[in-house]
User: What shape does this take?
Amino acid sequence: MARAKPQIGKVLLVGLGSGLIAAWTMNQFQAALSKASRIAKEDEPKGTSPQSNSRDEGPEDATLKAADRIIGIVLKRKLSKKEKKEAGPIVHYAFGASMGALYSMAAEIYPEVTRGFGTGFGTALFAAGDELAVPLLGLAKGPNKYPLSSHASAFAAHLIYGVTTESIRRASMAVL
Assistant: This one.
């Protein structure tokens, strides 16, 4: 049986939406993990707390730095701290939505991409994005500068992103 020709607009829209929802879900997971980590550290005796598992660079995480660079290129100016704080989430959600669209198109053309129910996609984004591109672009320190717990939590967040993207994509494609 021949496969139906994909409706590119529908596939892209579904991908954008699923990536956006997945980026939000990923943020919720990271916020819950961060809160649990803070609570656990409060319960530990002083001096026994392990290094932070936060991958950000203090007040300027990679999305804030990326937003500042993008605006610097487009508008030829630097962002204020307040503007960076507002633009950072926009960069995160725009990237999440665009990766969702890319994944949706890939899944439509190469269905084997969906094996693992989005875990391969999440793993690829973690490896290519967090571990390789972000440090190479100077948006964070190199991977060897962070504790293993930081890598594990970031990897888990990306798995959640991938599974959520695939879940929403499948459900949406089945309904539309």
